[in-house]
Amino acid sequence: MNTIILLGAPGAGKGTTAEGIKAKTRYVHISTGDMLREAVRNGTPLGREAKTYMERGELVPDDLILKLVEARLQEGGRDESYMFDGFPRTIEQAKLLAQLLAKFHAKVDYVFFLDAARDVLIDRLTGRRICRECGTNYHVRNIPPKREGVCDACGGELYQRPDDTEETIVNRLNVFRKETEGLITFYDEEGVLVRVDSAQHRDKITAEILEMLEELAGP
Ligand code: ADP
Ligand code: ZN
Fold it and tell me: Residue 156: nearest ligand to its CA?
């Protein structure tokens, strides 16, 4: 069981990078943001509790997140390898993850920090559009669909995430700085941090990460 983490501010390209890695490996993608959005859509008790935090761009409490992650790891078990995206987001979550992985006799192998400047992040988030049907990401200027508001891949309707508004974006970036940025030092001290320039083309980013993953045994 190998475990890697994609770490980065909102808009750094964690989701896009995860798609690239998934296409080339057998890593199971665990995006706590996607899992939470699904819980909200399905109106589960957890989803109802998470919704208010997410709308404000604040962090959902650690215990709720850990429940989600633990259930997912139990499902896949030791034979899978995992790629976390958007988790952990606090030092506390990182410590809880280490305890959880220890139960599977595993540890975090690499943390890829997608580094990007603040103005790049804001531009990516305000321009982001997502297909309602297949989840493909677009950007109104950088990656526009052929027809405005329509997915090239499946013809589905494109929408803007409710937390991709200017006000919530500023709050999410502040939360990153305050709660999550400390993880860079935390994992650097553990010797597993790899810095990746997220201004590069997505294929270049994926290639850099894949090269490092080749050294790990497994999928
Ligand atoms: P982004 O990285 O672009 O902000 P995510 O999809 O990762 O997007 O997260 C969206 C929201 O979901 C966050 O603002 C937060 O409210 C919640 N969330 C996701 N992952 C976590 C986590 N590990 N801990 C706490 N809250 C989380
Ligand atoms: Zn689509």
Answer: 2
pLDDT value of position 218: 56
Is residue 10 lining ligand 1, measured as CB closer than 6 Å? yes
**Residue 86's domain is classified under what CATH number?**
3.40.50.300
Q: For a ligand 1 pocket test, name from 19, 36, 51, 183 the mutation site with the most ligand atoms within 8 angstroms of its C-beta.
A: 36
Total structural domains within the chain: 1
Q: What is the DSSP string of 82-102?
A: EEEES---SHHHHHHHHHHHH
Q: How do residues 75-125 score in pLDDT, each as one tens digit?
A: 988 899 999 999 999 999 999 999 999 999 999 999 999 999 999 999 999
Please report whether residue 155 resides in a domain.
Answer: no
| Host domain of residue 10 | 2-116+170-217
C-alpha to C-alpha distance for 51 and 92, rounded to whole angstroms: 21
